[in-house]
Amino acid sequence: MKRSKATNPSRRHRLDINYREVLTGVRPQKRLRVKFKTRAGRNHSGKVTMRHQGGGHKQLYRIVDFKRDKRDIPAKVRSIEYDPNRSSFIALLVYIDGAKRYILAPEGMSVGQTVMSGPKAPLRPGNALPLNHIPVGTPVHNLEITPGKGGQLVRSAGGSAILQSKDKFAVIKLASGEVRQLPLACYATIGTVGNADHQNIELGKAGRKRHLGIRPTVRGTAQHPDSHPHGGGEGRSGIGRPSPVSPWGKKTLGKKTRKLKKYSNKYIYGKKQ
């Protein structure tokens, strides 16, 4: 981490990652980048479906290989790069057949390291194997839920899950404390996702939040009663109801929002107490 000198008020509280010590400084691959149009949280009809989104710096999306489907072909790590679309760093792999792919960079990965995907791959950080070939107790990330679909779980910076047991299914404990079953044929990557210091970043000023494309959040009590159920009243009169609600009148504290008949309920049998 790097603490900025307080040359002005906005830098006084700024705490950042020292990217020069982590990243290799190589320019991103042109063929692995695509245009990424921000839609300011609006759907196809122009209605806001995700609030507090909009603006931000222009970004190009990096195509990350979550499937790891080039099996039993070794690849060398060419560079560790920054990805503006996710909290973790990404690593550029160059396979012996010339193909280039981006993957999530795990903790401890370095340039020149050899990685591989497949049942015969060694148990080293960055290698992807099916769960039935991974020993119990191993930390993993980029977990598939459906075999062949690509990793969907544990992809953010510093994240890892623990393989607890294997029988008809693999039993995985996630960082949230949730315990769920996954098919043994699902692939997972060994190790912990890198850039764990991401949680320690202090932006230092409101403008950096806007650069990320995040717009301000206004308190409900500060709004007009036509805009929010907490609004209105003479002076600071509270929210005017027994418990807080969303702008649409739905309870926001304590009410469960998960569907009672969600398809994956039968695979989840342990939750954080």
Automatic annotation (TrEMBL):
It comes from the Bacteria. Residues 41-117 form the Large ribosomal subunit protein uL2 RNA-binding domain. Transmembrane segments: none annotated. Residues 123-251 form the Large ribosomal subunit protein uL2 C-terminal domain. One of its GO terms (cellular component) is large ribosomal subunit. GO terms for molecular function: rRNA binding; structural constituent of ribosome; transferase activity. One of the primary rRNA binding proteins. Required for association of the 30S and 50S subunits to form the 70S ribosome, for tRNA binding and peptide bond formation. It has been suggested to have peptidyltransferase activity; this is somewhat controversial. Makes several contacts with the 16S rRNA in the 70S ribosome. Belongs to the universal ribosomal protein uL2 family. NCBIfam families: rplB_bact. This is Large ribosomal subunit protein uL2.
